[in-house]
């Protein structure tokens, strides 16, 4: 009976174009469409104009350092700040650097040199990236000047401390690398929920009611479990590699256990929810307006520590809350099952809870029973 229900579920999906598109087509579409918006997540070679009013060796050294930056590219050396401002207003450059007259003299006399930086606030990310790179170059100039002054005064020339920054997990330090690995699992949950509930609502419209034996219900759940695990294998095995998102080389067994628990909780919740829908349009209407709140409740973009405690507890009733934490931790950060035991227990309890609701809602009723 389980095997027949398993195969019958796949036949029903293939016969329903809407369910097939939600379960298969939407995952394929989102896997390429969604990351495209973040393909340029780390701006590089932002055009910068330099106005050098000092014409000294130190100011030329600063220009050389600016030209070597990954974030900025010196595209013009202009004669005056007024000309540079026009270039900025015309959006021919993203930032301008003005080196005032007497820049080198102030440094050599033991004073503090000043450099003016201007960026276009209409493009905050682009201008901030360019200005951050320029600021780093200025910091290097300042350290070199400090070493030179220390040598002149007889102090040790070596810097006492050196700071090296290395991101542990989001190695690209981009927004897409932070958001999409979590959104992918939200997409998997939502497509499973909508596909299953649309299929169930269609059957209810045709039959008037839905009643299944526990073994039949298990066969249906196993079919959707296979689809969900295939989605996770597709995203973690191909999409994250194709989009070059950070991966923590998760242990295969750890990933299989995590994926199985996450999809089990999602399918159990979808089966329980599907029992309440009577028309096939309602699931899509509901989940379109709830996807964004569900994502925020997952704790990926807004920390759970900053969320009201009652809302954090309520969010744990959603499979995505522990599921995203578990899957991102395992797949992107290389976490172990022991380190993610809280999320695993949460998903196991949700599977039991929603599974019990589904069995109760779909139980076989005697003839003539409501």
From TrEMBL:
PANTHER family: ABC TRANSPORTER PERMEASE, MEMBRANE COMPONENT OF ABC TRANSPORTER YHHJ-RELATED. This is ABC-2 type transporter transmembrane domain-containing protein. The keyword Transmembrane helix applies. It is a multi-pass membrane protein. It is found in: Cell membrane. Keywords: Cell membrane, Membrane, Transmembrane, Transmembrane helix. It comes from Sphingomonas hankookensis. The chain crosses the membrane at residues 12-33, 179-203, 215-241, 253-277, 284-302, 343-364.
């Amino acid at each position: 009976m389980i095997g027949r229900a398993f195969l019958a579920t796949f036949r029903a999906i293939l016969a329903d174009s809407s369910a097939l598109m939600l379960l298969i087509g939407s995952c394929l579409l989102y896997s390429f469409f969604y990351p495209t918006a973040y393909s340029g997540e780390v701006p590089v070679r932002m055009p910068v104009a330099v106005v050098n009013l000092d014409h000294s060796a130190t100011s030329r050294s600063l220009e050389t350092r600016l030209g070597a930056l990954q974030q900025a590219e010196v595209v013009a050396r202009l004669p005056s700040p007024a000309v540079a401002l026009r270039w900025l207003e015309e959006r021919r450059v993203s930032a301008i650097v003005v080196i005032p007259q007497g820049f080198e003299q102030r440094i050599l006399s033991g004073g503090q040199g000043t450099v003016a930086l201007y960026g276009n606030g209409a493009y905050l990310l682009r201008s901030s990236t360019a200005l951050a790179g320029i600021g780093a170059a200025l910091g290097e100039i300042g350290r070199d000047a400090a070493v030179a002054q220390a040598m002149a005064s007889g102090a040790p020339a070596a810097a006492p401390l050196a700071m090296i920054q290395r991101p542990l997990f989001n190695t690209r330090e981009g927004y897409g690398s932070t958001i999409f690995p979590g959104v992918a699992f939200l997409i998997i949950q939502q497509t499973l929920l909508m596909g299953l509930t649309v299929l169930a609502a269609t059957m209810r419209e045709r039959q008037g009611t839905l009643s299944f034996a526990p073994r039949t219900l298990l066969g249906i759940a196993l079919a959707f479990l296979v689809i969900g695990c295939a989605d996770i294998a597709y995203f973690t095995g191909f999409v994250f590699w194709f989009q070059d998102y950070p991966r923590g080389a998760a242990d295969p067994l750890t990933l299989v256990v995590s994926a199985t628990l996450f999809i089990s909780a999602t399918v159990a919740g979808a089966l329980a929810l599907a029992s309440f829908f009577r028309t096939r349009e309602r699931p899509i209407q509901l989940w379109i307006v709830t996807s964004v709140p569900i994502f925020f409740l997952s704790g990926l973009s807004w920390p759970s520590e900053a969320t009201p405690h009652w809302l954090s507890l309520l969010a744990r009733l959603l499979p995505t809350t522990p599921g995203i934490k578990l899957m991102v931790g395992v797949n992107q950060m290389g976490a172990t099952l022991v380190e993610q035991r809280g999320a695993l227990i949460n998903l196991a309890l949700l599977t039991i809870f929603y599974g019990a609701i589904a069995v109760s809602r779909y139980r076989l009723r005697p003839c003539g029973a409501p």
